[in-house]
Amino acid sequence: MVEKNTKGITLIVLVITIIVLLILAGVTIGMLIGENGILGKSQKASEETNKQTATEIINLKITNAQVDNYAEKQKMPTLKELSLLLKEDEEIQYITEASKVASVEYNVNSENPNKIYTKLKEYPYEFEINSLLKVASVDGIKIGNSETENNGEEDNKTDNSEVVSKEQYDDLVNKIEDLKNEMVSKEQYNNLIEKTENLKEEVENLKNHSTPMIDTSRPLKELRVNEAYIATEDCFFVGSINTKTGGWWSLNIDGVDICGIGQNGASNCSIAFPSVFIKKGSKICITSGADYYYDMFLDIYRVK
């Protein structure tokens, strides 16, 4: 008797298996691709993450601009001032009063604009900033109830959304407090600089009034008693008189007797004047009513 081999699979089982595999493959592919597929949702999530990151960067730049303007002017900036501060930022691609799509003018020309548009170089999104210095829209999509314009009329809706987080707000407050402290330190620094300048001026005055050296190589002028001389430059007077009798001689500068020398007796002696510094333009004269002297040494010397 011949026995049948019953091992293996039938054609029907094979077909059913293939159909099940095709169904599973279709379900899997449908979950991966398509608008609502895993890849599509992942791409949307990535796009939203990038948009949120760019929005946070813009908000941070607005906050930093407010801090800088407050530090300089002790007040929050206007929208015009904000546009000027953002224009100096190297990460900003453009600042304009109209959307880049609708305008080729990339400057803010109005003194009191209602809104401005800007874009970061590294991100493809255009941001609208309203007069409250808040991001109102991203690529034309409004954020919360931000103040916007509708058909040329102002939307009266108030902005109740929180554009910046509480952490950013606290950070802004801390920065302002730090700036206040730095302003006090800056005032103290300026006072120190002023005192330093005053000290420099006093040092220069001391240098100008310090005793200069006498150039004794040769006299600038040899004086005679009762002869007036007007100094043509800063100079020194050095002199002495030899006499055999009593007398009095005075050193007169600009009409004022500065010092005098003399003796009462009739002995032979030499009397010296103290050395005196003479400013340029001053009038110097040795005055005396006595004629009883036999030698004198009254010279004007230059200053080294």
- Category from helices, strands and their pairing: alpha+beta
- Oligomer kind: single chain
- Count the beta strands: 17
Radius of gyration: 48 Å
So how many helices? 4
Shape: rod-shaped
Query: What proportion of the residues is helical, as a percent range?
Result: 25-40%
Mean pLDDT: 77
Brief summary of the model shown:
The chain is an alpha+beta fold. It is 37% helix and 26% strand.
Structural summary, described in words:
The protein is α+β, with helices and mostly antiparallel strands and 304 residues long. Among the domains are: 44-146, no CATH class; 215-303, Jelly Rolls (Sandwich). Helices cover 37% and strands 26% of the residues. The strands form 4 sheets. Strands 8, 9, 11, 14, 15 and 17 form a 6-stranded antiparallel beta sheet that branches. A 5-stranded antiparallel beta sheet has the order 1-2-3-4-5, covered by helices on one side. The longest helix is centred in the middle third of the chain and has 44 residues, at 166-209. The termini are far apart. Mean pLDDT is 77; it is low at 147-162.
